[in-house]
Each structure stands twice: as C-alpha cells, then as structure tokens.
C-alpha cells in the first residue's frame, strides 16, 4: 500500500443556534416534518423513543415509546400524518402523529432493521441485516407486498428512490450498491465498490474492505445521480446508466466514517456527518467543503435540511439534536 501525509483543510467553523436535549441515549436519526401546522423535528433514539419537537420553539411536543431495543431510523409520511420507525428488535412500526397511536407493527424481518423510507402515504420500504428489502402496503402490514432482495444481496443499510420513482437503490455493509427497477423489482446493477485504501501516518488504523456504505441520496433534478456516505471517510458521487455504476467524484474531509449525507432541496449544497463528531456543508457544484458545523462531542449520526435551505438539524450519540442556521 502507498503511504501519504493526509492533509485536511478544515472549512470555517459555524456554531449551532440551538441545542435540543431530552433523549437519554444516542440519537440515531432525525427528520423534519414540514407538512405539520408548524414544522416539526422527528428524532429516533437508542433510548427506544421517537420524539416530536416544535422546530421553531425547540420544545418537545410528544414522545412515543416505539421499541424496546432502541430505534435505528424514522421517517415521516409525505402528508405529515404518520411516522415509521425500525429497530434492532426486528420490527417496523407505524404511528399516528396526532395521537401517538401505534397503527401497525410488522414482525416479518428476522434480524435488525436499519432503515425505513416512505415512498407515498400508503407505501413504505424497510431493509436490514436479514438481507431483505420489504415493500409494505400500509393498509395491511401483516406481510410485505414485495421483497426486492436477491440471493446475492448483502446486508442492507439503507434504501433510496430516484426522483421519478423508477429506480430503487440500496447500500450494504459489504461495500455494495444494488439497484432495482421500481416497482417491478428487476435487478439493474449490483456492484461492489473497490476502495483504494491508503495508510495515513497520523492515523492509528486503516480500513480493510468490506466497508459499510451507510446511506445514499439522489439528486432530484438528476435522475441517475446520487451521493453516498462511506466507512472509508469519503463522500462519493455516482451515476447509474444502463446498468453501469460510474463513480464521478470522491471527497474526503472527515477523520472517521462518514455516517450520513443529505442534499438540500435547491441542490446547491449537501451535508455530511461523521463518526468523529464533525459535520460538513459542501458546495454541490465544486464539491468543496464550505462550513464545519461544530458543537457535537460524539458521533453525528444523521442530518436533515429544511425546505428553506438554511436550517440544518443534526442528531448525535451525545444524546442531543443541534439546529444550525446557515
């Protein structure tokens, strides 16, 4: 392996405008519900709760004891009325935001469920360590309506749907990116990312593949182009065309695993969060880091960007949420 001195230029620091406390364990995921009467923050924690907060007032509106073994991920339905949550307890749960009632709980996964994603007010995707991607009809969650996985599938960490709803993308813990035609389920691509791993003298260890690809996000105005967050400390941009996955660019500005990437609605910038407690705001055109959002003291697990393209909410293992205005 080659050896090189790794130089990371830290962009200008930017402090959080608010810190939200209330969880008693790591906060694993955050979403923003902008279709409520007043915009809300939805947070999922390893303390087993999903909490709903008022975004402007920063106060807790309600708390749902969602799972017994923690909550890995949550999502909000497009109409803003329901929350989905998933857990290491192998279940997917559906909640009514207005009264916190448990509408349904699916028990068809056979291992940890890492990710949930609404694709409409009546359909939901979930994926996990059992190597399944389930599509759910929310009117009847006794059994999934479809499983997109194949015998060659890896351990799924996240899913994403292209802006025109024609491509389902899945990332795995084995350095894989899988793509399926949606809703037919026909496999389009299954590719393992080949990492060019280098030993950095100032780092104590280097990563040996396979490496987790934590999540992916499509650009809304570029049907086949997406960003992904990687365990080798990088954010990557890919293009998917005719079954071929091409890496367009690759960027490092974190000292540890990149846990999440999120794209602004105007597509002018994106945000990455990392295991080293750092958060970066990147210019989407030049792929250069513009801001370092500071304040978290442990792993920053995820980020959400409001429609105003100025408000960013982050979640962390330090048990807090932070709100940044850029």
UniProtKB/TrEMBL annotation:
Q: Which keywords, in A-to-Z order, does the entry hold?
A: Repeat, WD repeat
What Gene3D superfamilies does UniProt report for this protein, alphabetically?
A: YVTN repeat-like/Quinoprotein amine dehydrogenase
Q: Does the record carry Hydrolase as a key word?
A: no
InterPro entries reported for this sequence? WD40/YVTN_repeat-like_dom_sf (IPR015943), WD40_PAC1 (IPR020472), WD40_repeat_CS (IPR019775), WD40_repeat_dom_sf (IPR036322), WD40_rpt (IPR001680)
How far does the signal peptide extend, from start to end residue? Answer: none
Q: Known SUPFAM superfamilies for this protein?
A: WD40 repeat-like
Identification of the protein by name = WD40 repeat-like protein
Give the classification, highest ranks.
Answer: Eukaryota, Sar, Alveolata, Ciliophora, Postciliodesmatophora
